[in-house]
Automatic annotation (TrEMBL):
It comes from Patagioenas fasciata monilis. SUPFAM superfamilies: HSP20-like chaperones (SSF49764). The gene is NUDCD2. One of its GO terms (cellular component) is cytoplasm. InterPro entries: CS_dom (IPR007052), HSP20-like_chaperone (IPR008978), NudC_fam (IPR037898), p23_NUDCD2 (IPR037902). This is NudC domain-containing protein 2. Gene3D superfamilies: 2.60.40.790, Single helix bin. GO terms for biological process: protein folding. CDD domains: p23_NUDCD2_like.
Amino acid sequence: MSAPFEERSGVVPCGTPWGRWYQTLEEVFIEVQVPPGTRAKDVRCNLQSRHIALSVRGQELLQGKLFDSTITDEGTWTLEDRKLIRIVLMKTNRDAGNCWTSLLENEYAADPWVQDQMQRKLTLERFQRENPGFDFSGAEISGNYSKGGPDFSSLEK
């Protein structure tokens, strides 16, 4: 099981007019489609703890207050194949109960089904971290998994 959990189990993306975003326990990924031939010098990306601003060739594509806080120094962006900007934000709160329901405070919310799938995925990722000898990448989960699922930490080992 050398590949990361999200690579083995897939991601649960939330589509937007400019691309998509998805999350893991630790990170939020933002993929923005840009005009083919875009160069890095055309991109302005400002990442702060609770704010993001992205423009290409002076046109604002994404701007606003993030759903939750991130670690500013660990946020990165890359331009891939001169047509996709990938932004990676490191969550400050990295537990399964911290499932972002939207990318920004009042925009790009996941619909209820996608939000449910995101929460399931984060709960399984939490189980994977707590039980590294097992592979939860293909597991199904039902029942109470909201807020990260049941807490087994108080049980004796």
